[in-house]
């Protein structure tokens, strides 16, 4: 087994770990980045599927994502706007299809009033939340002891309003049922994007894409680091003490002064620690879990929905595919739709054979776009829940009461061991922007402690 020495060993070659590595090298420290997969990028993965370029993982850039935008500029990457011209589609509980423009769905006047009222209430609460310290809010414990679903019930008796507002957090972001996470966790999700209104506004949160794919960010960062990035090296054991760390992977042993675990929190326990991590770490990691979502890609001869005056944007908390968008790739004359099947709906279709799952999902897309949606040239399901080195999507979130109880310790270093990933971000939580922010902060903490 090869044995090398570095100042810092980084476990995980996603955007966060590679950002930290880049900063450390710029400051004159030596690094080794150990990645379990045969590729870099983590939850960023741009791939060719049957001749179509698809973003298997994260892909969008929003206007407030300064850390990501600075990185794109540094790497010389350009962006293009998501197609959004035309009308959007909404389907209600009765299965009735309506077209609309703007942010508020075409619902009865009272439901619209209730939805606007809920958005205003959530925006007011979010304005009081520091995304880096949500547990510091005076009502943090109270908000963390009530599910988001129950909180919505205390605010309105309008079921459709609750279903729609709940969808923006439960289905679209945390990918867990609204009864499974707290109101405080929902507020953190909104605060991380600046406001709940930003999450409601698809034109804001899903503004741009990167020419060539978002995985170019970690690919280019890894290229700059050169021979300091090692793939196919899952770390099995991490020995640590006051004098530093030793990381043992399948083919390399790295001795270093510091370690950065740049992996989703649910994978931290995959490593054996000598000595074991403190009790607090053992406990808090048991209160974090990943969401579950299928990202469905359907590529067609042409973007036929545009001919019908549709933007490609579609929503319904009552459909198997709760949201979908025009996801056509830059420079490709074909049209691509991307749709999402989350939490318990994903459970349901994963219980049936693959061909039946495909039929159900395409039938749901056809409810929005018509029968042409039933026959794509290319069909692909991104299933991060089956990825050994991710185990869910889009990010880990706390169970009821966990954020107020353990949130402050989530990124606390343990001796020479630091933690860095998008799941631990405040601003930019569960996005690559947050991964980059935390990577910068983790590198700064190590440089301050050296």
UniProtKB/TrEMBL annotation:
This is FAD-dependent oxidoreductase. It comes from the Bacteria. The keyword Secreted does not apply. The keyword Nucleotidyltransferase does not apply. Pfam families: Amino_oxidase (PF01593). Keywords: Oxidoreductase. One of its GO terms (molecular function) is oxidoreductase activity. Belongs to the flavin monoamine oxidase family. Residues 16-447 form the Amine oxidase domain. Its cofactor is FAD. Substrate binds at residue 340. FAD binds at residues 16, 35-36, 235. InterPro entries: Amino_oxidase, FAD/NAD-bd_sf, Flavin_amine_oxidase, Flavin_MAO.
